[in-house]
């Protein structure tokens, strides 16, 4: 069994904000494959599906971001999921919009959701970072991450959603380098052909 987690904040006021990109990715993948039967469990939204020949739990914690680790730890402990089978999708201020990075373990770079997860289950899980860029002034970060994407960034974000949905099997199979090479190869072709 593998666990795919999207991080975000609950409530309509946070929907489609930069900080909720983890929720948006989960919703996009599940919508594409008609995975609609989420239930309220472990203080979050949970569904279990056969997906790309894997037994997958998709989960969105419904606590606020800085308490994400509490429901995740309940879920992980209940199903006894090893950390190397956990994939957490979240926003990254240090990556520009349109960039994706994948790594296992490492620090949390000040991300409150990751801080909470690390505190409750450790840090040796897969991190799928989606770039959101950052404002010039650190004092603007809170309003920035809780704001929505600019119109000119939406095409890049939607491309990421589509690509993840089409190729998530590579991540589930731990073929992260292949996934990223394919993503950036396609991205470079689009840039060259002036499609973005």
UniProtKB/TrEMBL annotation:
Name the record gives this protein: Peptidyl-tRNA hydrolase
Superkingdom as given in the UniProt entry: Bacteria
Localisation per UniProt entry: Cytoplasm
PROSITE patterns, sorted: PEPT_TRNA_HYDROL_1 (PS01195), PEPT_TRNA_HYDROL_2 (PS01196)
Pfam families, alphabetized: Pept_tRNA_hydro
PANTHER family attached to this UniProt entry: PEPTIDYL-TRNA HYDROLASE (PTHR17224)
Catalysis: reaction(s): an N-acyl-L-alpha-aminoacyl-tRNA + H2O = an N-acyl-L-amino acid + a tRNA + H(+)
Active site: 19
Keyword Secreted assigned: no
Residues where tRNA binds: 14, 64, 66, 112
GO molecular function, one term: tRNA binding
CDD domains found in the cross-reference section: PTH
EC number: 3.1.1.29
Family named by the database record: Belongs to the PTH family.
BP terms from Gene Ontology: protein quality control for misfolded or incompletely synthesized proteins; rescue of stalled ribosome
Keywords, alphabetical: Cytoplasm, Hydrolase, RNA-binding, tRNA-binding
